Amino acid sequence: MAARAQPRGPAPRRAPPGRLLPLPPLLLLLSAAAVIPRGDGQNLVTEDVTVVEGDVATISCRVKNSDDSVIQLLNPNRQTIYFRDFRPLKDSRFQLVNFSNSELRVSLTNVSISDEGRYFCQLYTDPPQEIYTTITVLVPPRNLVIDIQKEIAVEGEEIELNCTAMASRPATTIRWFKGNKELTGKSEVEQWSDMYTVTSQLLLKVGREDDGVPVICLVDHPAVKDLQTQRYLEVMYKPQVRVSQNYPVQGLTREGEPLELTCAAFGKPQPTDMRWLRVDDEMPQHVVVSGSNLLISNLNKTDNGTYRCEASNAVGKSHADYMLFVYDTTATTEPAVHGTRVLLNASTEALPTVQLSNASVALHPDSRAGEEGSIRSVDHAVVGGVVAVVVFAMLCLLIILGRYFARHKGTYFTHEAKGADDAADADTAIINAEGGQNNSEEKKEYFI
């Protein structure tokens, strides 16, 4: 008796020759989530991605020699983002950009720090292949601030400035500029979780030339360009004093003529006290001082001296000197040099409540600027005239002597020589001469 066959379940389906049966959906998902041994990735190509926080990152998995194998993309937690063109991960920030047998390209919008890490490209071949790409997220500084130790500084002081760049990734590099000149500061870096805060300190000694000049804090960071902030310096300085001659205009200060001087002072704050005085002597009574002007209506020799204009403000005191020399009314030679001399202010005083600053430089016109050259010109003219007169007198004397000697030149004979030609000897000649002793009593001379 033949044994009865036990009932069995439905016979398994067989695929037609030359075809493979598709996997059940559940088995398909399990296969996608399974960890596949990493191969050498010789047929896969991808690149690392660097993106600024909040921007879009694009991940590309490419196959060099496509054989219709399955491509999928996994996140750093090994969760499948895309399997072919299907997205199992419920994160709408991931969008399919391109899908084909040779490429799977996916974009990630609104990137944050939590998205940073390794993303895996897998290719179902035999054996399977895997390669990863790294997403790096840059975070620009959220705030850039300059803090000045003293809002208002006095010339000569050293002030401290601090520039802070907060919450950046990676750490920023801070550079300092004063106007167009780059300066060197000292930086400190603090790390808070995944972020960095950088503070740079700058010590700056200020002068009056720095008033109103911008100090710039500039950030070098791969996530941002031309990020900077600036503060304008405010520097107080003592007055800078200058004396100018209004009349006579670059001319000689002669006796009997007027002299007008003007004093100008510039400082911060603007000078409130300005006065004229005469150095080492009392101010002449006929000198009229009106504010910043000094007037002498009738110059004389007693006015010679140094006149000083002093100006002061909350920082200190400065002065400028004018040296007056009064010429005679007959003086006609203009000074050889007109101009000003730059002198250091030696008598600088500071008010008790404000720190002293360095000595200022003031401009001092000098009425005697051309005196030395003028005197030298006069001396040369006098000496030349005297020499010319002496030479002329000597020439006249030589001419007179020459004419005198010329008129008295020749041969002269005395009376004793008369009769000498007929005498036989010298004794006879003397006896026969008219001027002899025998005739001496007869000879008389008359003067008319």
Mind sketching the topology for me?
Elements: H1 25-33, E1 44-45, E2 49-52, E3 57-63, E4 71-74, E5 80-83, E6 94-99, E7 103-108, E8 117-123, E9 129-138, E10 143-148, E11 153-154, E12 158-168, E13 173-178, E14 181-183, E15 186-192, E16 195-205, E17 214-221, E18 224-232, E19 235-247, E20 259-268, E21 273-278, E22 287-290, E23 293-296, E24 305-312, E25 317-324, E26 340-344, E27 361-365, H2 371-407, H3 426-432
Parallel strand pairs: 2-9, 11-19
Antiparallel strand pairs: 1-3, 3-7, 4-5, 4-8, 6-7, 8-9, 10-12, 12-16, 13-14, 13-17, 15-16, 17-18, 19-20, 20-23, 21-24, 22-23, 24-25, 26-27
Describe the overall structure.
With 448 residues, this protein is mainly beta. It is 12% helix and 39% strand. Strands 2-9-8-4-5 form a five-stranded mixed sheet, with no helix packed on it. The protein has a five-stranded mixed sheet with strand order 11-19-20-23-22, with no helix packed on it. Strand 8 and strand 9 form a beta hairpin. The radius of gyration is 57 Å and the shape is elongated. The protein starts with 24 loop residues before the first helix and ends in a 16-residue tail after the last helix.
